[in-house]
Amino acid sequence: MCTISEKIILCTCEIKNVDNLKHYWILFRYDPEQGELFVGEPLGLYEFLQAENPKNTAFLLDKLNTENLFDQPLEFKGKDRLQISIHFKENEYATDFGFEYKNGKWKILEFDFFDWKSEHVEIKEGKIKNALSRKK
Fold first, then answer.
1. Residue 60: helix, strand or coil by DSSP?
2. What is the 8-class DSSP label of residue 74?
3. Cα 73 from chain centroid?
4. Rg (alpha carbons) of the chain, rounded to whole number
5. 45-75 per-position pLDDT tens digit
6. Cα(74)–Cα(21) distance, rounded to whole angstroms?
7. Burial tier of 30 (Cβ tally within 10 Å: 0-12, 13-18, 19+)
8. Are 92 and 106 in contact (CB under 8 A)?
9. What pTM was estimated for this model as a whole?
10. Residue 99 belongs to what H/E stretch?
């Protein structure tokens, strides 16, 4: 079984389209002017994929708050949201981990595409290096 690597790095290098990557991240910024309405129903895979290894969310949260996971320093603002998308080999779909920046710390926040896009805009994205390690 694969787990998230201790050596995970969120790269800030220029990427044209993260949709073609196995592992990627997107930083969203709160924009009260956004106000877009997205209609749809999420697939509901979040809880299922998270349940397979709940330690991954806590691990990422700890790394975000104790280390700089990014290859370059970034400045975060309150209400910023971070989507970390990792495709575990044993799953058909990528697992999306969601976090929100509040009071100088990251907090776990369920990733919901429709909710996030209604009040936030994507400001930065990149690929993830060293995303997985194989557990023996």
1. helix
2. -
3. 17
4. 14
5. 445 445 456 789 999 999 999 998 999 999 9
6. 22
7. middle
8. no
9. 0.86
10. strand 95-102
